[in-house]
Every structure is written in C-alpha cells, then in structure tokens.
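Sanity check

After download, print the first record. It should look like this:
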Amino acid sequence: MTQITLTPDQADVFGRELDEIRDRVIADLGQVDVDYIRNVIKAQRSMEVAGRALLFAGIFPPAWLAGTAVLAVSKILDNMEIGHNVMHGQYEWTGDPALCGRTFEWDTACPADQWRHSHNFSHHTYTNIVGMDRDIGYGVLRMSPDQRWRPYFLGNPVYALLLMVLFQYGVALHEMETERIRAGEISLADKREVFQEIWRKMRRQVAKDYVAFPLLAGPVAPFVFAGNMTANLIRNVWSYSIIFCGHFPDGTQEFSEEETRNESRGQWYFRQVLGSANLTGGRLFHLLSGNLSFQIEHHLFPDLPARRYAEIAPQVRGVCQRHGIPYNAGLLPKQFATVVRKIFKLALPDRVRQEAQRVLQAA
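Expected structure tokens:
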C-alpha cells in the first residue's frame, strides 16, 4: 500500500491547485479542440480506406506491408485517440452527436456500453484500490503484491502474453468478472446477458475483418485475411503496452479500501497521481498513444480533451514537486521492462520472492 501521505489540509491545497489547472483548460476550450478531433477522425477514416484498398493488392509484398501498417495505425487511432477519449465525454460540450461519449461505438470487440461501465466508472473511480479496481490484473493477472498469491498465478507470464496478443478480447470479457466465476461467487448464468452482448459485438468484428473483407477481395482473400489479423495484432500489442506502462511500472502504488474511505477531492487526486505513470516521447508517439502517455493527467482529468494533456503536464508536475509527491515518467522501453519484471516476480509465492530479493540485496 502507499507509504506517502498528505494531511487533510495538505490534500485540500493540492486539490485546489489542480482544480485551478482544470478550470483554466475548461475556460479555454473552443474551436481548435473541435477541429483537432474532427481532423483526427478524418485522417483515421482515410487511413482505414487506404489500408484496406492496399490489402486488396496484397499479392504484391510492398502493398501488403503498407496496407497492413496503415490499417493498424487506423485501428490504433480509432481505439486510442478517438474512441477512448470521446467515450470519456471529452467532447460532450460541443453538442456534436458524432462526438457524444454516451452513444459512441468503436472498432474493437468490447461493447462500448460495457467499457463505459468497467473503465469510465469502475476503474476511474476506484483507481488502484485493491479489491475494487478490477483493472489491477484484469481478473487474470497478479499485478500487485497485495493480491493474495495462489498457485494459479504461477502462470502469470503466460497469461500476460496471451492477454497482450488477444487484448481486445481480454478487454471485451472484462465485464464477465471471470475471477468471481472462478471463485464461485457468481455463476456463468448470472452473466448470460453480459456475455450475449459481448458475443454479438465479437461476431460483428470477426465477420467484418475475417469474412466480409476477405470475401470482397476474391482471389486475394488470404492476403486480406492475414493483413487484417496482423493489423489487429499490432493494435492489441500497442494498446496493451501503453496501458500497462501507464498503470503498472515501478513506482506506481496501490491503496486499500480502508485508507481511501471518505477521501476528499484532493486525496482522490493524490491517489490518481501515485497510481499512474507517464511515458515520454514526441508528438507522434503521444498521438498514437491516445495521449495516454500522459496517464497521470488523464487520471486527474479524464473528461478534458486529451490533446491538452501535453500543455498541462509541466504544470501538474510542478504542483506535485511543491507537495513532495512523486511524478512517475519514463521512456516506453524502460517502463515496459519494469512491468515485465513485475509480472514475473509476482508469479512467485511471496516467501520465495522475498527470499530471492534478500539474496540479491546481500550479494
């Protein structure tokens, strides 16, 4: 659990300073923000059309490679910079039905309504509270030492690899609460309606990428099928990497239900900062990450347009420094390496892990 604390008065000051940053952004929202997201949507749609067209010429290796890459980028933009951010309500203030987070649907296996509950509500409300935030391990992995070890977790590295490769399906099945089914707390029958909705969305996605477009391609159907599968794989691996590096690298902390009970707004902000981590990089990297490379700012202000996170990140860092609160940021390879190390370490029983750590420290 967290070892850094703020007094109630310190938390209130911390919260007010962050609220001032938020208020300044809200007061400045305008046409430039609308133009930005509409241009990203136009670019994403153009890239999807171009990628699929190139795959129809996929018998030629350069066309297949280009088509797969362009389609993969379009899927990443759809999920990360458009779908994720629009569904957070970042553009509700525009009144544009196409940017309405309550009705937006995205190009992935997870039904949008279920994601809005599991992510927007559950994860962002109970961020890093062990036993309440089901994104800690997604009901599959052990990603915190405060999760009780069981022999099942010896497979942690294997489960992590499968989740990365099949990430859209792992996210889709999140609302099934499979860990509760395994524990006998609920039955599969209790989740029948949830599964039916997931199954309908999965069927549509599979039919589109692996049946409809390959059939339209006629004799080059195998190339289109392979291109679509590879593009989905690239999107899955990229999304997994960005999300896990924003939540689980070294330095991120978990909290107990007890220590977060009756928390003030400032204390809620405090938990968001300590439970998140940023990724450093250039403008293209931030775009392709959906600006989730600014995971700290996103957790503080999930309903602010994500393009604004780069602008306010130095201000947020400054507030954290004044209050002695760590601001976790690093390059993707570095953060990902610590995530992988954590996955392997937490696969082991606590006593084995602690003994190995003791031996390494003594050496």
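If your output differs, re-run the checksum step. Summary of this record's structure: The longest strand covers residues 278-280.
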